[in-house]
Amino acid sequence: MSVRKAVPIAMRLSWLVLFALMISEFVTDLPGPGWATAFLPAMVVLALMAATTVLQVRAASPQGEPRPPVEVDPPVTGRWTALNSPADKVPSHGTHVYGQTYAIDIVADPETGEGEAPARPAFRWLWPFFRRNRSFPAFGVPLLAVADGTVVRASDGQRDHLSRNSLLGLVYLMLIEGNIRSIAGVHRIIGNHVILDLGDGTYAAYAHARRGSLRVKAGDTVRAGQRLGRVGNSGNTSEPHLHFHLMDGPDLDNARGVPFTWRGVGVPANGETFTVGTDVSAAG
């Protein structure tokens, strides 16, 4: 069995063992000294989670020479700023898992979208702890198909939570919410999302879409520039933004990342602001 195929099995096994340990802990009395009763279940679960993470990293790590960058259209229009860009480091998000070796995050500048106020006031690190999504200019901005393709997966049933980009919010996201989402699986990490099959073994992933905004479903064919949905704040995210990457398969648990370049933009570096003209119009 290949490592890539073993990852989903390991994840399911972790869930089964976690469930069994919870039943043993709270329904029956575990034999042995008190320390074993208190710490053994947690140690076993942590070991399984660590083993699963190792399998995920091995499955997603690039093999051989990297593929040349695939040129596609930008997934948005307007004025944006890049974060966690593969132009600065690879893997861009510090991990190869979920096919995000060459992933990029982009946030809209105040001039873009339908926001009510600038996205980054000077006091944002202290107060308020959580902000409404409509306070961010990226929220509700159309997501566009980067090329002709077929929709492999489209899901938008998860809620858009409040922002987590204050100091307290980030601590909560990293130490509590992020870990819970990791245990729950990749669908809770990427939130509402679309995956497109672009052909030639290349797939495009759009994460954190707005709840109820998707205009496509699995099996639909789309044209470059067609509107797929809208930017949201679902999944493991600190504020409304788009997480985008290319990968070599439709299954995020098994896929490896593929380098990209946006036509007319390239790969913007961290903190770099870029503008995409409206000639890449939303069709449909």
Detailed description of the structure:
- The protein folds into 2 domains: 3-60; 70-276, Glucose Permease (Domain IIA), CATH 2.70.70.
- 39% of the residues are buried.
- With 284 residues, it is of the alpha+beta class.
- A hairpin with a 2-residue loop joins strand 6 (193-199) and strand 7.
- It is 26% helix and 20% strand.
- The longest helix has 27 residues, at 34-60.
Topology:
Layout: H1 3-27, H2 34-60, E1 70-72, E2 78-83, E3 104-108, E4 142-144, E5 149-155, H3 167-184, H4 186-190, E6 193-199, E7 202-207, E8 221-222, E9 227-230, E10 242-247, E11 257-258, E12 260-262, E13 273-276
Parallel strand pairs: 1-12
Antiparallel strand pairs: 2-3, 2-13, 3-10, 4-9, 5-6, 5-8, 6-7, 7-10, 10-11
Helix pairs in contact: 1-2
Descriptors:
284 residues; Glucose Permease (Domain IIA); 2 domains; nine-stranded antiparallel β-sheet; two-stranded parallel sheet; 26% helix
Report the biggest beta sheet as strand number plus sense, adding barrel if it closes. Answer: 9 strands, antiparallel
Helix content: 25-40%
| Percent of residues in beta strands | 15-25%
CATH hierarchy, class of the largest domain: Mainly Beta
CATH superfamily placement of the largest domain: Glucose Permease (Domain IIA)
CATH topology of the largest domain: Glucose Permease (Domain IIA)
Shape: globular
Mean pLDDT: 81
